[in-house]
Amino acid sequence: MTNPGADGVHLKLESVIRSGSSYHPTVDGFRAALSLEGKSPFLYIDIPTAKSEAETHVTVDQDVKFASTEAFTEYTKFVMGSEEFKVHLDGKTQVHLKGLPGMDVDYNKVVVMKGKSTHCQQSHTH
């Protein structure tokens, strides 16, 4: 995340989807919610259409508005106060295989991220 503003940030997210399937479906682009577990979304992002290959690179590079400033504030507290935390990416899309009608898919991915908090050990001399 870069260029923080009063109502949003710039987000660049690069991911790789790997598939061992011999089928190469197309996944429609969709709007995805980013949230902490059990919390309201802090951002919505647009995931582009992707054709599934053995290894598919997907890049999200966009300016996004906060879904909720309170939820984004809670997210930043997790980043700063945790060694590790989970972000949920959820959305609904369709998958298309050539010659078949589209199939509805609920996309639910949990990403474990590293936070900024580290435990400091103090040494004591007696």
* H/E element order: EEEEEEHEE
Oligomer: single chain
Content of β-strand: over 45%
Question: What's the helical proportion of residues?
Answer: 10-25%
Per the principal axes of the C-alpha atoms, what is the gross shape? elongated
Structural class: mainly beta
Poorly predicted runs:
119-126
How is this structure best described in words?
- This protein has 126 residues and is mainly beta.
- 10% of the residues lie in helices and 50% in strands.
- It is built from one helix and eight strands; from the N terminus they run E-E-E-E-E-E-H-E-E.
- It has one helix spanning 69-81; strands at residues 8-18, 26-27, 30-36, 43-47, 50-51, 55-65, 84-96, 103-114.
- The strands form two sheets. Strands 2, 3, 4, 5, 7 and 8 form a six-stranded antiparallel beta sheet that branches.
- The protein is elongated, with a radius of gyration of 18 Å.
- It starts with 7 loop residues before the first strand and ends in a 12-residue tail after the last strand.
- Residues 119-126 have low confidence and may be disordered.
